[in-house]
Fold this sequence. Notes:
Blueprint: E1 6-12, E2 18-22, H1 27-33, E3 43-49, E4 57-65, H2 69-88, E5 92-98, E6 101-109, H3 113-124, E7 131-140, H4 143-151, E8 161-169, H5 170-175, H6 177-187, E9 195-201, H7 219-222, E10 223-232, H8 239-257, H9 279-284, H10 287-300, H11 331-347
Antiparallel strand pairs: 1-2, 1-3, 4-6, 4-7, 5-6, 5-9, 8-10, 9-10
Helix pairs in contact: 2-6, 6-8
Amino acid sequence: MAADQVLEFDVVTADGQRQTVNACQNKDLFWALRGGGGGSFAVVLSAVLRTFPSPSMVSTLYSISAANETRYARFIRDFIRFMPTLADAGYAGYFYMRDTSIVIAFFVPNGDFSITTAIFNQLMKNNTDLQFISNSTFPVPSFYDYFAQIMAASNPTGGNVLLGSRLIPETIVRQQPDQVADVLFQTRGRNENQSMLIGHLVAGGQVSNISIDNSINSGWRTALLHMIYAQGWSEDTSAADQEILALHLRTQVEILQTVADGAQSSCYSNEADPNEPNWQQKFFGTQANYNRLKAIKKTVDPNSLFICKNCVGSDDWSSDLNCPKKSTANRVHVTIFVVFLMKLFHVFT
């Protein structure tokens, strides 16, 4: 996780003070900033990150279509049963499910081309009757080149879409693959209503290193899949119909939740439903994690200068974030003071 690689922050806190934040100074704030969500704690001016040499990549791209839903469901079962094998071999990447089609964009950092090809061929040799619209495996010199060649063209720049997601624990994928596959089949996207089910094989590996002490949603440490239901709509869609689509998305996410540890399931807040019930636990992993973050916020931002929707401390505000549920009469004065200090800081730098 990127938050695991942060070594230090340079910030301005709500009282206008510039602070160095790391494992030695402002330790609680350092813990909170590494995973604690949106701009809830301070203005981050810069961060020092641990970096690594870019790996070479082996890319595997498939676009596959099945003749009917029965055959498609069978392939999805094969695919999910094979997911632990791919994870153990170092695979990561994405897959996109709609109707009776699936697009797979996987890669192996520092992978051996021959071994990588042989492993994926184990999955495909029992599914040769499917329609392979595209099928390619090839080496790429670096992750940047991989992104530029494969991902950049589909990198969205805006559109009408609502997302809902769940992190699927590795134990469930390994022990109940058919149940996971059946849920993915049930919640797959439909072309007729502009929806898509997006899978991410991006967890596992070093993400599962639970010795790192930060505030990242603990669901990441045990997940193997990150599943997103994406619901789009046209520009002329009425507000009433958008509400119907939002309710449909909630239903789909609730189905995903049945293979995501139920009520204890969690999700990635940046790709989650903004209408998520119980967002404190879902976005931050556990209520205890959220409570610690909120206690830190009350220390570093006692007047709630930094507030955003479904961020730490926003549950103390009205839904439109205009009115605190409790009186904060001195908040205006604090805001003016901070603006003054920020201007003063710019004068002398």
